[in-house]
Amino acid sequence: MTSKQWYYAQLRWAVMVEGKEGLREWRDTVHIFSSENEQSAFKQALEIGRLGEDFHTEGRREVETRLAEVVRLDYLGTNPTQFEVRLGSSKARERLPFEHVFHPEEHMPESPF
Predict the structure, then answer these.
(1) What's residue 38's pLDDT?
(2) How far apart are CA 52 and CA 49, in angstroms?
(3) What is the pLDDT of residues 56-98, one digit of tens each?
């Protein structure tokens, strides 16, 4: 019996609108899953991505969410007890002075459900 290994996959979908609009937006997600090896992990990432594809109509136009690429596929080990997923950075939308003090302990994150 082979032991499973943990992988991190960043997937990207393109939201495409029929007609002149074309590409509307990119959607990125991160999935962490176990697989037997890198090749099977890639197949699994593609399968996850295909399950995320969708289409609907807006008026007379079709809108499709299509898997565009597996952006990253990283091996995380066989038995890690925690993961770090870096999601990138974004420009600050507000101004805060250098002296600003943050209090993360005062804000419990909201549940997604």
Answers:
(1) 93
(2) 5
(3) 999 999 999 999 999 999 998 887 666 666 666 667 788 878 8
* pLDDT exceeds cutoff 70 at 112: no
DSSP 79: S
43 pLDDT higher than 90? yes
- Coil, strand, or helix at residue 102? coil
C-alpha 60/C-alpha 3 separation (Å) is 50
Would you tell me how many other CB atoms lie within 10 Å of the CB of residue 23? 11
Q: Are 38 and 13 in contact (CB under 8 A)?
A: no
* Angstrom distance (rounded) from CA 73 to CA 10: 7
Q: How many angstroms separate the CA atoms of 72 and 10, rounded?
A: 5
Rounded CA separation 42/33 (Å): 11
